[in-house]
Amino acid sequence: MGLSVVQGFTKSLAMTVLSEIGDKTFFAAAILAMRHPRRLVLSGCLGALIVMTILSAVVGWAAPNLIPRKWTHHITTLLFLGFGLWSLWDAFNEGEAEELAEVEKELDAAIKSNGGETKENNKDADDRKKQSRPFLSKFFSPILLKAFSITFFGEWGDKSQLATIGLAADENPLGVVLGGILGQALCTTAAVLGGKSLATQISEKVVALSGGVLFIVFGIQSFLSTVES
């Protein structure tokens, strides 16, 4: 039991760090931290990633109870090999800093569509805004909710989410959750504290290559391992 937790933790930590560094949500956290209080951005982004990690692990844990373990094992193997090839393809076909520019453009477009967050702060306008706020905004900072929603929906259906589901189906779910949360915390904290200056120094090609190799290693290991009945 202890060994399986450590194995799941190690694999999840390595996979999460290499999947999240240079990912869209990493860049989104870095850009948001330049425009808003870091504490709120970190809380929102990290909260979304923790929720997503736990949800993914629960789905992965439940899968072998719904589908024969042999099938979930083979699906996980194919997922890892497929994601490895996908990451290698991205490494050789995407330009450096392309993702950062794309995320920045999307965030700017979102701000403009919300009225540009102009600084015309009328008391009447502020009162009206407070009254028309969504329910959750009355209890949580709008910035925290914005960081949470951008990160959560950015991760939904992402390669790292699907890989976490596959990993939890094949490894100890507790280890996968703990490793995933630690990996998310390290990456998100680095993005928020380092900001755009750190984001621009990261080589997306090197990260994608490393992630691709890691996924392929996991896939080969899964292929060669025996299926527990």
From TrEMBL:
Pfam families: GDT1. Its main location: membrane. Residues 111-130 are annotated as: Disordered. The keyword Transmembrane helix applies. GO terms for cellular component: Golgi apparatus; membrane. InterPro entries: GDT1-like. It is found in: Membrane. The keyword Transferase does not apply. One of its GO terms (biological process) is Golgi calcium ion homeostasis. One of its GO terms (molecular function) is calcium ion transmembrane transporter activity. The chain crosses the membrane at residues 40-63, 75-92, 135-154, 174-194, 206-224. It is a multi-pass membrane protein. Residues 117-129 have a biased composition (Basic and acidic residues). It comes from the Eukaryota. Keywords: Membrane, Transmembrane, Transmembrane helix. Belongs to the GDT1 family. This is GDT1 family protein. It comes from Sesamum alatum.
